[in-house]
Amino acid sequence: MKAAVLTEFGVPRYADHGNPAPAHGLEVIDVAAATLNAVDIAIASGKHYLSPTSLPTVSGIEGAGTTSDGRRVYFSLPVSPYGSMAQQALVSTSSLIELRDGLDFSTAATLGNAGLAALMPLTHGGRMEAGENVVILGGTGVVGRLAVQAARLLGAGSITVVGRDEAALEATRELGATATVAVRDKGVDELGSAIRQASSGADVVLDYTWGTAASAALRAGNRLVRLVQIGDRAGSEITLPAQLLRSLGATIVGFMPLHYGPDATSQAYRTLTDWVAAGKITVEFESVPLAEVADAWERAPHTRHKLVLLP
Fold first, then answer.
1. Can you give the pTM of this predicted structure?
2. Residues 107 and 143 placed together within one structural domain of the fold
3. Backbone φ, ψ for residue 296 (5° rounding)
4. Total domains present in the chain
5. Where do the H-state alpha helices sit in the chain?
6. Beta partners for 288?
7. Residues 148 and 229 in one domain
8. Residue 23 DSSP label
9. Are 80 and 125 members of one domain?
């Protein structure tokens, strides 16, 4: 079969790879769409804790397609070395989520990793209640833009998006953001003051960046502020005063969907597909032939929509 094959750490290449075979508890999926995520790039670099220990392998953590008996499904975490960026993938039967009628495969794939990282940090990681103020750090990308829409639908009191690209920040207002804060060259205290003024104090922080913005957002927190740590593109370490955490009763929660189990993940995914079916959220993606995976790999960090590879 044709696949995005990683023969050395870096960028996978479009090449031939052996086909998977079904086994007990495992199904072969005919892949119709596979997303290209930031975590795919990190894994392929060889520096991520999920990076493969042996090569060659097929890249890709998620996708959508059909089972051998014709069921339309979303799948994630395929069994190595058969990743999602291929004509076929091998996945655990228990991980499959059946798709509702009318949902196209590219949208279904995009609502997986990106959609769950937008919705579940609010509902599960941050336990957001209607009327609470949400701050989204790094909210101008694919996941952040979905998070803005999810926070709006969940009844957030205010939604403040923090980022560097001022034009992209302004564009989040049409999705539901009530305020934006440009990072520019602000220090921690100045950025914290700007976030507090824009948000009226943060109750839940979705943190896709870590770094200075995370430290600033905690300083802008209300009592019992909850910061959900999802990504670290601005840096892997920060320093926080112990008294800041104690004085606010602040909580920092590390987020991955798997921490909440398959039932919670499936329910969150179905909530997202219900919103799509009702026209309540916009899902932004670009379809790219799998044969152009190397080019897509280079473009992905610079796009604000999801790239979806079509075998």
1. 0.93
2. no
3. -60, -40
4. 2
5. 38-44, 105-110, 113-120, 142-153, 166-171, 188-199, 211-219, 242-248, 261-277, 293-299
6. 309
7. yes
8. B
9. no
